[in-house]
Amino acid sequence: MVGQSIVLRARAGMFGDRNFRLIWSAATVSAFGYYVTDIAIPLLAIEQLDVNSFEIGLIRVVQQLPNLLFGLFLGVLVDRTRKRPLMVWSDIVRAIVLLAIPLAAFRDVLNLPIVLAVVFVVGAFNLLFDVSEGSFIPVVIARDRLVEGNSKIEASYSTAQTAGPAIGGALVTILTAPYAIAVTAIALLGSASFLSRMTTHEEQPHIDHDRSVRQDIVEGLRFVRRQPILRPILLTMIGQSFFGFVFMAVYVLYMKRNLEISDFQVGLVFAAGGVGSLLGTLSTPALNRRYGIGPVMVAGNMFFGVTGLLIPLAVLIPQYAFPLVIVCEFLQYLGLLPFFLNAISLIQLVSPDEMRGRIMSTRKFLTWGVQPFGSLLGGILGGLITLPWTLAAGEIGLLAVGIWLCLQPIRSMRAVPVEVGQGWMQT
Hints:
Blueprint: H1 6-15, H2 18-47, H3 53-79, H4 83-98, H5 100-106, H6 112-140, H7 146-175, H8 177-196, H9 213-226, H10 230-258, H11 263-291, H12 293-308, H13 321-350, H14 356-369, H15 371-385, H16 387-406, E1 417-420, E2 423-426
Antiparallel strand pairs: 1-2
Helix pairs in contact: 2-6, 2-7, 2-8, 3-6, 3-10, 3-14, 3-15, 4-6, 4-8, 5-8, 6-14, 7-8, 7-11, 7-13, 10-14, 10-15, 10-16, 11-12, 11-13, 12-13, 12-16, 15-16
């Protein structure tokens, strides 16, 4: 309406679409459940199974292993199938499998192999859901509003990242970790309900039966390798994933054993990252307009690495350890989200419609596929060079990735290029 701000008009326009409201609601509910479990499973392993640094790294490895095993194949599946049913069934399967943990705890048979089996299956369907969602969103949202729609969905993820870990920490304290995980199962069923009510028309993809799965996979990999925007973005994300999971493999263990903070405080640390994510997401459009997309991505990446280096130092000042980690977590994600949001939007925008599933899965395969190796290295280093030095090694790697991106041509990109047929237009 005349007189309203641009922001308010945009908000009314997006949320006035019933299908967008439903996919946004599904993403939000699912994200809350994810972050509850993401904090509950490490706490479960540490407190009830008394794992060591290698075993907690192994949990991360198994959780991410499906990305390496199935990533490229799932991209072909997504390109050959309607996306929304895949998302619904992914929610349902994940909910059922997660319920195995509270059931095993109730029968007093919970052990590390059960946890590993659960995180493996859930990790596989997390991947299927994520690839399907990334390919389905451009069907729901008009191409010229894709960055705006992604910003709103990412803002809901950031809100969940803010509140989810704190809620997870509180639920672990009140209910114990196995029953906190049951909350995720309920949330995933809610997400499936929202998605099943959508009315977005989705064409059945055309399948060339003369083409093999291998040919489709190679085509997607070749496109990514040759695309001048995707290549530096994906190489950066690969580095972030590897070194980030060296760090994440022992992060909770470090906070619990070296800093001696409570379960609820661990949740608050991750919640602080969510606040940073939310503010980073909301500020990205204005930062892009002011400084240009390339400088914003480069600066955000560098800021992410520099601020993380302070976290291992918290062990030297135990009286200030908790507030220092809180501040660093906030600042890290404040810098990371402008890079990440722009990167995801660029990947979606330059991907041909008929190849988007393969390109999204190639991103997952390359970026999530290195995470098990990062987790494994982090778990091994935790036992060899102590937990604080392992965190420092991960953060030095992240800083090196940021410096590498500074040297790439993408640093000078001012606007978002959108591939249209064989040409380009600026938005």
